[in-house]
Design a protein that fits this description.
It is found in: Cell membrane. InterPro entries: ABC_transp_permease. Keywords: Cell membrane, Membrane, Transmembrane, Transmembrane helix. GO terms for molecular function: transmembrane transporter activity. It holds the Pfam family BPD_transp_2. Helix content is 79%, strand content 3%. The protein is mainly alpha-helical. It has 2 domains: 1-41; 42-228, no CATH class. A two-stranded antiparallel ribbon has the order 1-2. A hairpin with a 2-residue loop joins strand 1 and strand 2. Helix 3 packs antiparallel against helix 4 (99-126) and helix 7 (179-197) packs across helix 8 (199-209). The longest helix is centred in the first third of the chain and has 35 residues, at 2-36.
Length: 229
């Protein structure tokens, strides 16, 4: 029992060192940028960093789930671009100044993302094609579709309700909080709750650890991979 306790403590200390090391790297970059870039610690700069990082972190949550199953998704960035293009075109079609247009645009973006994920999941899960090959091909396909939809040009969205979510911010006593950071908090909380409290979330670890053993224990491995994408 004592040996087990020592092993657990040793493992915890390793994990703590890992997080401390990552924190030290981030701090070192902040110090470097503050020296090399004038006024780096301005409120505007920090706000922009939070806003841009929030989008990347939201994408990384989905990528994390895929990696847990032993897969990879190289098409996530191109899928985001295609979803954004679909949202912009939908908003312009439904109503550029209406809340309905914003809602339709968000629904279109989610639908496109879900459709691409479903295709990736079916090919990787049920047909058991290499996730690397599938998502690499999907990356090329979605990039081409984005170019076709946008004609290679920028689409400006002037819908206030839509821009409120992506570009708006709260001023809390001089501290600026981008609206998209709230979306990040909701996504992270939902992902953690789902992974820790639902069997589907817990099964991800089993599938990623050993698909054969997971299948032998009754886990629907193919469906698990499909739903993750």
């Amino acid at each position: 029992m004592r040996q087990l306790d020592k092993a657990v403590k040793k493992r915890l200390s390793k994990e703590q060192k890992r997080y401390l090391f990552l924190g030290a790297i981030i701090l070192a970059f902040f110090i470097l940028f503050s020296i090399r870039i004038p006024n780096f610690f301005q409120l505007v700069t920090i706000t922009n960093l939070v806003r841009q990082s929030a989008v990347i972190l939201i994408l990384s949550i989905g990528m994390m789930l895929v990696i847990l199953t032993g897969g990879i998704d190289l098409s996530v960035g191109a899928t985001m671009a295609l979803s954004g293009a679909a949202a912009a075109v939908t908003i312009q079609t439904v109503g550029e100044q209406s809340v309905a247009g914003a809602a339709a645009g968000m629904a279109a973006a989610l639908l496109v993302g879900a459709l691409v994920g479903a295709v990736n999941g079916y090919l990787c899960g049920y047909l058991e094609i290499s996730p690397f090959m599938v998502t690499l091909a999907m990356q090329t396909l979605t990039r081409g579709l984005t170019m076709m939809i946008t004609d290679g040009s920028r689409i400006v969205v002037k819908n206030q309700a839509f821009n409120w979510l992506g570009g708006g911010q709260w001023n809390l006593g001089g501290f600026i909080v981008p609206h998209v950071s709230l979306v990040l908090v909701i996504v992270v909380a939902a992902a953690l709750f789902w992974m820790r409290n639902f069997s589907m979330g817990i099964k991800l670890y089993a599938v990623g650890g050993n698909k054969t053993a997971a299948y032998a224990s009754g886990i629907p491995v193919k469906f698990q991979v499909f739903q993750t994408y």
